[in-house]
Amino acid sequence: DMQGIDWSKLGNTWEGARSVRKLYHQHPMVRQHPQPLSATELPDTEEFFQFRQMNMEHRAWIDHYQLRNLMVSTSHSDVYYVARSRIMHTNSSSVRASCVMDLTDPWTSSSIQAGEFRVTALASAADILVAGGYRGEYALQNLRSEYGTSPVKGFATHNRAAITNHLHTSTTRTNGSPQAIFCSNDKQVRVLDCFTDTFVNEVQYEDYVNCAATSPNGRLRLLVGDFEGSMIVDADSGRLLKHLDGHINNAFACAWADDDIHVATAAEDCHILVWDARNWSKPLGDIANETSHTTSLHFSPLGSGKRLLIAAESADIVNVIDANTYSSKQVLPFFGDIAGVSISVDGSQLLVANGDRKFGGLITYQRDDYG
């Protein structure tokens, strides 16, 4: 098959292995909460993407089993992924990869903080690559800098338990400069000005925040974490504006569409909620997962055709949902834990980082109706 698995030698079939994997993910010891009755199982009737290729030379490394945003693409041909304590750059069509951030050497004199930089989150914006680490550290790399230029390094917090749960980028409303939003495991959300390498905002919450998404206009922020439901807060003050019900377990994925209207959240209760920012009273859609919980959500960019919602489960499945109707989808199946997904800036290409140690790699799908 596309992953190089010779089923004849394994004494099994692709379909048989898929059914066993599905039973595993639905076992009560794995799925601790039953899927809500309100969640709708969408039919797999669409063909938005076609498989293009799989490159098994590029395997992203998952350091924390719940944190799966370890790959980004900054252009149609530039892909960055986490390889232990290194950030690698490649073209999806190439077998070669180069290291753009080597974080393997101890880079602080503090005996408390000394050690390798274990990358748990990755994001990019405006030719800047941002990596967050296991102990509150971060690194910035200017992608236009001369080859061999060392990244700028620092700490979002010196709390050793404050792992970087999630990173995303946005732009300031005043001058459009890039900023990185850190969700740290000390119940704080911090905003870093990437041009000045200065933290310009810091908000403390009552619960752990595992993922955030900022509205395109920069005024609102969506938060999910170790609490039920999700929160809409003021992006500057952090003040709670609206609490959205619907999830009963910890959440690790959310997204805000480029149209400034639609948002999506997903939790370990194995369903996805879609909301319309013009009416927070009830969700626009309640979508059941295939097997496991969603770990990464992405809306397709504006101008790339029919709007899609990409929902990557923790293993084996990427759901491509029709984000106009939320009534149908395409299931992209394979075998392996998902380290990250990324859709190209023009929406024509979907990349999946399969972190399986034996059959993993970089999977590329091409949009079927593009152009």
Structure in words:
Keywords: Repeat, WD repeat. This is WD40 repeat-like protein. It comes from Tothia fuscella. WD repeats lie at residues 244-279. The chain has 371 residues and is mainly β. Helices cover 4% and strands 46% of the residues. The protein contains 2 helices and 27 strands. It has helices at 7-10, 14-25, and strands spanning 49-55, 71-73, 79-83, 86-90, 97-102, 119-125, 128-133, 137-142, 152-155, 164-171, 178-184, 188-193, 198-204, 209-214, 220-225, 230-234, 240-244, 251-256, 262-267, 271-276, 285-288, 294-299, 308-313, 315-322, 329-343, 349-354, 361-367. The strands form 6 sheets. A 7-stranded antiparallel beta sheet has the order 1-27-26-25-24-23-22, with no helix packed on it. The radius of gyration is 20 Å and the shape is globular. The chain starts with 6 loop residues before the first helix and ends with a strand. The relative contact order is 0.17.
